[in-house]
Each structure stands twice: as C-alpha cells, then as structure tokens.
C-alpha cells in the first residue's frame, strides 16, 4: 500500500506521533494520553457505546442506527436536472446504474494512452491490497495532465451551480440535521454530459480495472461477487469551513454496493488542510488515514468491513466516487424493497 496511508491516529488531536493507546471499550479509537481520551469522551461515547461496560452489553436494546450512507437510486442526475432542457444531454437510460461490462477493452485503453504494463501493474495492486487490507491506494493514477483536465471539469460544474447538498438514505435524519452529518455538495454525472468527457474517461478506466479484478485468476474475495453494475460518478466538493461527513458505512443494508472507488483532485494538499478520509477496518486494531492527494485513487470494500468518515475540511476538497455492485445482492435488495412496498400498500379489511 502507499506510504501516504497512515495508521493509529489520536481521535482527539489527530496526531500520529508517539505511542498511541487503544480505547478499551470500542477497540477502534486511539489516544496520545489519558487527558486526550477524557477530553474526547463526550463525543466518543456516542459511537463506542459508553457506559461502564461499553457497547454491546446494555440490558436494553438500542434503537437501530440511522443509515447515513449516500442514496444511489436517483432516476436522473442532479447535473442533468440543473441544465436547461436544450443543453441537457439526457441518456435513454433512466436507471441510476450502468453496466460495467460496457467498459473499454484493452485496445481502446491503449488508444487512450494507457499501456498494458501500466494497466497490469495497477490491476495487481487492486487484487492484492483489497484481499490483504480491504483498502487499496494508488498514487499518480492518471498523471498530472489528465488529472488537471478532470479537475477543470469539476470546477466548471461547481461554477455553473450544478452541485447540490449531499443527502443520506435515512428518513430518521431531519433536513436541518443533514449539514451536521455531511457537508459536501454533489452532482451525479455519467461522463456523457457536455464538458465532462475527462470524467467519463476516468470512469471508463476504473470500470475496466474493476471488471478485470473481479475475474482475475487470483481474485480471492473479489471472486465472491459478480460485479455487473456501477453507479453514476458522484462529483463531490467539501467547501472548506470544517465541512465533513460523520462516520458511516456506504452499504450497511445489503443494497448491492461492494466496492467504493474514489479519485482525489486536491493540488498541493497539506495536513493542515484537513479533509482526511479515516477508515476503521472491522476487527482490526488499526485506523487508516487516507490523505486526499491530487491524482490519488482509492478502492475499499463498501460494506460494514469499512466504516469511515471525512474529517473537517479547512479548504475546498474535491473527489469523484463510483460504487460497484454485486448483481445477486442488488437483485435481492430490489426484491426486498418490492415486497416491503407491496405489504405496506395493501388495503386493510374491516
């Protein structure tokens, strides 16, 4: 994995220095010292379970946690909705999901300037790191020139007012509370919209990598999935001012998402700029802090194996996220939704 991935940070001051000690209650948080743990306690106890005995040992059952993940079932992208009808490049597809198998073949990738050696090296990293760590970080993914073109397209979307406040799945979360949960502005794009061709090229490359990794001879855990679908690309901007996204799981309820792929576009990022993605791998005593560096690509499992959060961003932070879905789990999820809708809409009889 990349040297830019740092483990074991103090939950209070975010320092990586010195000998950090694990919280004995939740086994997920680390602290420089007892003082920092005490200062962070009011905030931390909400996530760790608090109390004398810690989480999981209450006599009374806690209510289910609200789903704070990003909804992916929009029938039309926010970008298309924001454009006048004369400018909108609407696809004949109304689904929010696209077939990964429509991605580029090796010849098309080579014509785009991506050689087989480059592709094979990244493919090996994805397969190895997802199986070993559940997380894969690739620096200098497309090269500075291509990354600049993508960043310019993202900034153009922002300047034209195409971004809107990010939402969460849970209806338990009131509108006024959403800004406290996630502070990003987003747009869903296909890459086929006007002036989004470079974003489209990024997604095509990632499609090809994920599809090949899924069928790789050493796929390991990747072979447990039949990755057929992906979402639109979610362009996200955290506009500074300590905007963040609280700890959550992308796919807590089996909606089909199995791999989260994030591309970062933050030039000259420094530690003081904030906006670090912190991942808490399930069952491990380490925390991964992913710096949102320019031209960095990140892959990780989307389910409960990887709870994560975006720490407060001090300056504008850009990223593009695509989720890849397992066909079987997605079909089962849609069947559950259909059954729930049918049972809740049936008329009652006297």
UniProtKB/TrEMBL annotation:
Catalytic reactions on record:
L-prolyl-[hypoxia-inducible factor alpha subunit] + 2-oxoglutarate + O2 = trans-4-hydroxy-L-prolyl-[hypoxia-inducible factor alpha subunit] + succinate + CO2
Name all MYND-type domain ranges.
10-48
- Domain annotation Fe2OG dioxygenase: ranges: 229-326
Cofactor(s) listed in the protein's UniProt record: L-ascorbate
- Listed SMART domains: P4Hc
Q: Which GO terms describe its biological process?
A: cellular response to hypoxia
Q: What class of enzyme is it?
A: oxidoreductase
Question: Could you tell me which Pfam families the record lists for this protein?
Answer: 2OG-FeII_Oxy_3, zf-MYND
Q: Tell me the GO molecular function terms.
A: ferrous iron binding; hypoxia-inducible factor-proline dioxygenase activity; L-ascorbic acid binding; zinc ion binding
For whether the record's keyword set contains Zinc-finger, the answer is yes
Q: Where is this region: Disordered?
A: 42-99
Compositional bias of type Low complexity: which residue ranges? 74-88
EC number, UniProt record: 1.14.11.29
Which domain of life, per UniProt?
Answer: Eukaryota
Q: Which UniProt keywords apply?
A: Dioxygenase, Iron, Metal-binding, Oxidoreductase, Vitamin C, Zinc, Zinc-finger
- This chain's protein is named hypoxia-inducible factor-proline dioxygenase
């Amino acid at each position: 994995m990349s040297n830019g991935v740092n483990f074991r940070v103090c939950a209070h001051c975010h320092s990586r220095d010195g000998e950090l000690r694990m919280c004995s209650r939740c086994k997920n948080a680390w602290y420089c010292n007892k003082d920092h743990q005490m200062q962070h306690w009011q905030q931390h106890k909400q996530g760790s379970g608090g109390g004398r005995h810690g989480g999981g040992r209450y006599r009374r059952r806690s209510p289910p946690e609200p789903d704070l993940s990003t909804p992916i079932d929009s029938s039309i992208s926010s970008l298309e909705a924001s454009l006048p009808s004369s400018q909108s490049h609407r696809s004949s597809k109304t689904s929010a999901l696209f077939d990964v198998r429509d991605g580029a073949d090796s010849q098309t990738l080579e014509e785009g300037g991506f050689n087989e050696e480059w592709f094979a090296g990244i493919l090996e990293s994805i397969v190895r790191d997802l199986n070993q760590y559940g997380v894969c970080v690739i620096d200098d993914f497309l090269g500075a020139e291509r990354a600049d073109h993508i960043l310019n397209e993202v900034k153009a979307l922002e300047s034209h007012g195409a971004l809107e406040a990010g939402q969460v799945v849970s209806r338990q979360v009131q509108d006024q509370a959403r800004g406290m949960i996630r502070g990003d502005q987003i747009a869903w794009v296909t890459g086929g919209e006007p002036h989004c061709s470079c974003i489209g090229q990024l997604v095509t490359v990632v499609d090809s990598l994920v599809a090949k990794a899924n069928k790789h001879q050493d796929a390991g855990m990747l072979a447990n999935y039949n990755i057929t679908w992906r979402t639109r690309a979610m362009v996200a901007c955290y506009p500074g001012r300590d905007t963040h996204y609280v700890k959550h799981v992308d796919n807590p309820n089996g909606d089909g998402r199995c791999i989260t792929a994030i591309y970062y576009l933050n030039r000259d990022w420094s530690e003081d700029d904030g906006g670090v993605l912190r991942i808490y791998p399930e069952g491990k005593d380490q925390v991964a802090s992913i710096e949102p560096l320019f031209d960095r690509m990140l892959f990780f499992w989307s389910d409960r194996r990887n709870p994560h959060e975006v720490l407060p961003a001090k300056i504008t932070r850009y990223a593009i996220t695509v989720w890849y879905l397992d066909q079987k789990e997605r079909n089962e999820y849609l069947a559950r939704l259909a059954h729930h809708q049918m049972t809740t809409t049936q008329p009652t009889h006297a």
